[in-house]
UniProtKB/TrEMBL annotation:
Annotated GO CC locations: cytoplasm
EC number(s) recorded for this UniProt protein: 6.3.1.5
Keywords of this entry: ATP-binding, Ligase, Magnesium, Metal-binding, NAD, Nucleotide-binding
Binding positions for ATP per the UniProt entry: G29, L30, S31, G32, G33, I34, D35, S36, T134, K163, T185
Biological role: Catalyzes the ATP-dependent amidation of deamido-NAD to form NAD. Uses ammonia as a nitrogen source.
NCBIfam families in alphabetical order: nadE
Gene Ontology molecular functions: ATP binding; glutaminase activity; metal ion binding; NAD+ synthase (glutamine-hydrolyzing) activity; NAD+ synthase activity
Name of the featured protein: NH(3)-dependent NAD(+) synthetase
Length: 247
């Protein structure tokens, strides 16, 4: 099946899931990155009159906001900006009392993602919209998302697309060129990039997931395998105690 056909299947999946949930539409967060751009355009195609994109700056780089705004303008997306700076400061003041210095960067980065999740669900409930996630196959496999943050969603439409597929989908959907060529980053702290944090490239991860491992170093393969195992708890929510035998 060609990618164009699969994108149509994703659109139908979104429509079917909304109908099953007795909801009215869909909502997604816009980060200024390629994954959220692709998902935003897919949900607009699925529900042209019943969708919303939220830009949620939280001490975010200006470039994130600029790219999100350019996508909104080019594709005439329904969008609102919800600034979370003050909410973040309030939570940080509480956490500062007991925050370990060596943990602060990751804790506060994940806090930003979880504040955005809360915002999406508040807006989603208000509009009777389902919250749509933006995780692709690469991110899902290695758990490269915040548990109950950007991983806290109702639907995952692009979870079977490799990163290379996301780039191809972005071109099909006419995502802005500057977003397509941008270095992938979650922008959870200054200077952060996906590949720097993962310690391998998306191209290497794509090849691993395709089974083309002959040119991948043992170190990269082990790193991917270890990340997959260590993040299993993110993909299978929530472990339950053994069933009680009442006899």
């Amino acid at each position: 099946m060609k990618l164009e056909q699969y994108l149509e299947e994703i659109i139908k999946f979104l429509q079917d899931e909304v109908k099953k949930a007795n909801a009215k539409g869909l909502i997604v967060g816009l980060s200024g990155g390629i994954d959220s751009a692709v998902v935003a355009l897919l949900i607009k195609k699925a529900f042209p009159n019943n969708y919303l994109t939220l830009v949620m700056p939280c001490f975010s780089p200006q470039i994130d906001l600029d790219y999100a705004a350019k996508l909104v303008q080019k594709h005439n997306l329904k969008s609102e900006v919800v600034n979370l700076d003050d909410a973040f400061i309030s939570f940080k003041k509480i956490l500062d009392q007991d925050l370990k210095p060596e943990k602060s960067k990751i804790v506060l980065g994940n806090l930003k993602a979880r504040l955005r999740m809360n915002t999406l669900y508040a807006y989603g409930q208000n509009h009777d919209y389902l919250v749509v996630g933006t995780d692709n196959a690469d991110e899902w496999h290695i758990g490269y998302f915040t548990k109950y943050g950007d991983g806290g969603v109702d639907l995952l439409p692009i979870v079977h697309l490799l990163k290379q597929d996301v780039f191809a989908a972005a071109k099909i959907l006419a995502v802005n060129d500057e977003i397509i060529v941008r270095t992938p980053t979650a922008s959870l702290w200054e200077g952060q990039t996906d590949e720097q944090e993962m310690q391998f490239s998306y191209q290497e991860l794509d090849q691993y997931l395709l089974g083309n491992t002959e040119h991948l170093s043992h170190k990269v393969q082990e790193r991917i395998k270890n990340l997959n195992q260590a993040t299993e708890h993110k993909r299978n929510l929530v472990p339950q105690a053994p069933k009680w035998n009442r006899s």
